[in-house]
Amino acid sequence: MNTSENTGTPSFASAGDAARSFLSGNVATGTGAAADTRRIGFGPRLGAYLIDAVALSAVAVVLNIVHLGAIGSIVGLAYFLYFWSTSGQTLGMRLLKMKVVRTDGQALSWGTGAVRLGGYIVSAIPLCLGLLWVIWDPGKQGWHDKWAGTAVVRA
Prior knowledge:
Blueprint: E1 2-3, E2 10-11, H1 15-24, H2 42-65, H3 72-86, H4 91-95, E3 98-102, H5 110-124, H6 129-132, H7 143-148, E4 150-154
């Protein structure tokens, strides 16, 4: 990725370069000192979520085997709330070296984690628009991040 000299905006040699940059989360966002280069874009966040989904699916299989499948959703919600509020990292986030923090850089409290989780659910309802918002938001925040005052950054 190159930077256009007169506009300061990213320019790409090919569509493949643009796609690789997008999927790696390395698209430059914002301008000037306000731009946080540590923030993570949509591609890596999706990767972390898919890793978490695989782990939670394994747990769901075990719960179904022991006839406790009905609590699978509760386990999934508790998984995200616990890890966001304690370490800031789910298993997927840890493997991909990212974490969720408050916009002031501090760790999430249980309350902030709960607001983010509720916002995550609401963000998924309108065709995942609130989750996809990360793609074009200058601060790389989805609706759930904006409501909870959080951001996903490199760990």
